[in-house]
Amino acid sequence: MSDKSVISPAVPLSGHDPLNFFWFIPTHGDGSYLGSETQQRPSDFGYFRQVAQAVDRLGYQGVLLPTGQNCVDSWITAAGLAEATERLKFLVALRPGVTSPSFAARQTAALDRQSNGRLLLNVVVGGVPLELGGDGIFLNHDERYEQAAEFLTIWRRLVAGETVNFSGKYYRVENSRLDFPPAQEPHPPLYIGGSSDAGVELAADQTELYLTWGEPPAQVAEKIARVRAAAARRGRSIRFGIRLHFVVRETTEEAWEAANRLISKVSDEQIAFAQERLRTVTDSVGQTRMLDLHQGRRDRLEVSPNLWAGVGLVRGGAGTALVGDARTVAERLREYQALGVDTVIGSGYPHLEESYRVAELLFPELGIQRPGATWRRGLANEFAAGAGVGPVDLRAAAS
């Protein structure tokens, strides 16, 4: 049976449906060690395609493509990867302020149609004023969210098929329309992250799924309660997802060794520089919360059972990983699932190898069925060890 066989229904665990599990395309580079050029991999499309095709075959439902000055453009990359994959969905950055809502609507329709409805959109308002200035955006934090609200209002009406006339504080359009609608109705789903009050209000008002970075469960519970309440005030409901790195191994000891190895080439001077830079260049509430988890200290990295903040010593954005054997990591994920999380966006270094480890070790514990996992056994080989057949004559096999 080929990898294109029908996926068998997954078995729910602990009273929950299986999580939607996504992976990450490392368009800013990849490697085996954080903060080091040792065993580093370049940001080229051939490697992105390798990762995407692997996770497509392994049963991940989608991939996140990051955005920013240090990333290869997510829209163009997703367009190429859509042609190289079959099932995979693409979570691509929608950037209010960086582009116009009318142009973004046309891009949305084109990529959604090209990918046969596999487009998802991650609303990124931005949290680094210096980088935003390079894109011509000079609004303060809350003003950027006000601008995003107008942007999404126009965008949603266009992709729904309306002819739009709009005059607001940040945008004015006259007789704008979209002649080619997206494949998905009424539009590709909108995801968003944002820990500030302005971010929560925009999420509750305009989007379908709220993403949080991997904070301890109590802090995630507080965020979810805020967003749920804000959505309820508008008569809406909203789904929840979490962004995490993973270090999963067959034993807990192996997992912690791998986590420590990941930061083994980072010096204390590099950590101090990265922490100072991350705190001074951002006005993101979520980034500040990430940094506060560990305060840049190597002795404070396990911020909750199995939740390790070592990635955040030198990396901005998502800075925590679940570390452990597969069963333990699955238990930690079910703690988040009990809070209302139904989607996980994972990653690991390097992303190609770690996508296999997560799929092969963690998916069975989560009840996630991989495509082609129920293949029919054939002749014995070195992996089957003679399963289903009689003893193998090694001398005959070698002849």
From TrEMBL:
Record keywords: Flavoprotein, FMN, Monooxygenase, Oxidoreductase
Chain coiled-coil ranges: none
Membrane-crossing segments per the record: none
Keyword match Glycosyltransferase: no
UniProt-recorded Gene Ontology molecular function terms: alkanesulfonate monooxygenase activity
Lipid biosynthesis as UniProt keyword: no
Enzyme Commission number, as recorded: 1.14.14.5
InterPro entries registered for this protein in UniProt: Alkanesulphonate_mOase_FMN-dep (IPR019911), Luciferase-like_dom (IPR011251), Luciferase-like_sf (IPR036661), SsuD_RutA_monooxygenase (IPR050172)
UniProt enzyme class: oxidoreductase
SUPFAM superfamilies noted in UniProt: Bacterial luciferase-like
GO BP terms in the entry: alkanesulfonate catabolic process
Pfam families: Bac_luciferase
Superkingdom of origin: Bacteria
Catalytic activity from the UniProt record: an alkanesulfonate + FMNH2 + O2 = an aldehyde + FMN + sulfite + H2O + 2 H(+)
Residue stretches making up the Luciferase-like domain: 20-343
Gene3D superfamilies: Luciferase-like domain (3.20.20.30)
Homology family: Belongs to the SsuD family.
Role played: Catalyzes the desulfonation of aliphatic sulfonates.
Name under which the protein is recorded: Alkanesulfonate monooxygenase
Organism of provenance: Camelimonas lactis
Organismal lineage: Bacteria, Pseudomonadati, Pseudomonadota, Alphaproteobacteria, Hyphomicrobiales
